[in-house]
């Protein structure tokens, strides 16, 4: 009787175990297929984020467009101020290369645009001042956020280049220019215009070979009793040794 009872209990136990195992797998599935409702909700969320990013970008673009209009107005006002620029006195002005050297000394270590401004032509000073006065830091923050939403891979440096103030942007340009100049190699003067040729440490890699040096022409314009730095044109020629 005992054997018969045992044989009869075995199948029951096996069935119980199999039910338990199935129940465990059913209770803890490895993958649950999303429903159409889930997919629609996710798609709607993505659309909302995309539309919000686009809206932020459009608002930023509108702000930049308005800023561009104001900048053009400022440029027109500054162009009228060009006639009020001091009449050039060549007899009382130092040589162009001396004025350039003074600019280089100041610009190399400048921490702001204020000490650099007097070395720039009157028209450029007025335009830069007007743009800086209209610069909106809050709008710049929104611009950075909008660009970051549209392209999350954009680096902080790239974002800063798009949204930095006119003074900071100009400061970097003039400071880099000054630190690239090694020495003056030539000077040409034509009335109230002058070109000072310099050797620079701006080189290039050509066919896998590095050339560390180059040349550039610094354009100068005479105003009052001095020469102002009006532009910087880098040559395509590069050299193994400084010219």
Summary tags:
about 240 residues; alpha+beta; four-stranded antiparallel β-sheet; 7 helices; 6 strands; about 55% helix; disordered N terminus
SSE diagram, text form:
Layout: H1 2-27, H2 36-80, H3 96-108, H4 122-133, H5 137-150, H6 156-163, H7 166-180, E1 181-190, E2 193-200, E3 204-206, E4 209-211, E5 213-223, E6 226-239
Antiparallel strand pairs: 1-2, 2-5, 3-4, 5-6
Helix pairs in contact: 2-4, 2-5, 3-7, 5-6
Q: What would you say this structure looks like, in words?
A:
The chain has helices spanning 2-27, 36-80, 96-108, 122-133, 137-150, 156-163, 166-180; strands at 181-190, 193-200, 204-206, 209-211, 213-223, 226-239. It has one domain (45-239). The protein has 243 residues and is of the alpha+beta class. The chain is built from 7 helices and 6 strands. The strands form 2 sheets. Strands 1-2-5-6 form a 4-stranded antiparallel sheet. Strands 3-4 form a two-stranded antiparallel ribbon.
């Amino acid at each position: 009787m005992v054997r018969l009872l045992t044989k009869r209990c075995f199948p029951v136990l096996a069935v119980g175990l199999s039910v338990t195992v199935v129940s465990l797998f059913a209770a803890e599935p490895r993958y649950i297929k999303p429903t159409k409702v889930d997919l629609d909700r996710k798609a709607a969320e993505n659309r909302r984020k995309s539309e919000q990013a686009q809206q932020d970008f459009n608002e930023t673009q509108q702000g930049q467009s308005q800023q561009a209009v104001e900048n053009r107005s400022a440029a027109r006002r500054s162009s009228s101020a060009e006639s009020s620029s001091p009449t050039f006195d060549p007899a009382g002005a130092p040589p162009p290369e001396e004025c350039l050297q003074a600019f280089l000394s100041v610009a190399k270590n400048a921490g702001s645009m204020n000490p650099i401004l007097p070395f720039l032509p009157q028209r450029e000073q007025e335009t830069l001042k007007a743009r800086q006065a209209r610069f909106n830091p809050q709008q710049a923050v929104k611009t950075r956020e909008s660009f970051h939403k549209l392209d999350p891979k954009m680096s902080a440096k790239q974002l800063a280049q798009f949204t930095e103030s006119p003074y900071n942007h100009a400061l970097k340009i003039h400071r880099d220019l000054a630190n690239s100049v090694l020495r003056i190699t030539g000077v040409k003067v034509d009335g109230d215009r002058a070109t000072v040729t310099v050797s620079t440490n701006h080189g290039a890699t050509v066919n896998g070979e590095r050339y560390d040096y180059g040349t550039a022409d610094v354009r100068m314009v005479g105003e009052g009793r001095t020469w102002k730095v009006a532009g910087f044109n880098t040559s395509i020629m590069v050299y193994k040794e400084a010219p």
